[in-house]
Amino acid sequence: MPPKPKISRENIIQAAVDIVRNAGLSALTAKTLANRLNCSTQPVFWLFHSMDEVKNEVYSFALNRFDEFIKHKLPSVSSYKSVGLNYIRFAYEETEFFKILFMSNYSDIDIMKSHVEMPFVLNLITEEENIYGEQAQNIYEEMWLFSHGIATMIATGTARFSRERIQDMLSDVYRGLVANLKK
User: Fold this and answer.
1) Do the Cβ atoms of 72 and 122 come closer than 8 Å?
2) Contact 85, 77 (CB under 8 A)
3) Model pTM?
4) Residues 77, 183, 142, 129: is their CA dihedral positive or negative?
5) For residue 125, which of 116, 113, 134 has the smallest C-alpha distance?
6) How far apart are CA 172 and CA 31, in angstroms?
7) Mean of the per-residue pLDDT values for the chain?
8) How crowded is residue 132: how many other Cβ atoms within 10 Å of its Cβ?
9) Could you tell me the residue ranges of all domains in the chain?
10) On the CB side of 176, how many CA atoms lie within 13 Å of its CA?
11) Does pLDDT of 71 surpass 70?
C-alpha cells in the first residue's frame, strides 16, 4: 500500500485561496503554491490535472464566499439594502476575490445576465416594494451597476467612502428608482 500523501487537495486549495486572497490570481503558480506548502510541485500535479483546475477551485471558493457576504442580514437595515452594502463590503474585505468575480473575464460570462444572486435579490425587491417582473429586474440592474461602481472604486483604491455615506447614496438612488416607477 502506498504511503498516504502528506499534502491533501484541501491543503492545496486552502494554500491557493490564501495566495490569491493576499496577492491576486496572477500570483498563483505551481511554484508559489509549492513554496507555500513547503513541498515540490509534484503533489499539486498528483492531485490536480493542471493549475487551471486549482484556479477553478479558487474561483468556486470566491463565489461561495461572496454568497456568504451577500446573504448576511445587517442590523437595522432592510434586507435589500444589506445586499448592496455587503456587495461593497465584499469588494473592501475580499478585494482579490471581488476582482476575480467582477473585474475580470476569468469565467468568461456576462455577469449582468448570470449574476448568481439575482433570484435572491429580485425576491427581496418583490417582498419589500411589491415590484414585480421587468420593473424589479430594472431596479436590480440599475442598483447593481451603481453598487458595482462604488465597489470597483474601493477595490482599485481610487475612492474611499464612509459606511454612512455609502448607505446614504444607496438609499438616495434606490428611493429615486422606486419613486420613478410609482409615477
Assistant:
1) no
2) yes
3) 0.88
4) positive
5) 134
6) 48
7) 90
8) 11
9) 73-181
10) 9
11) yes
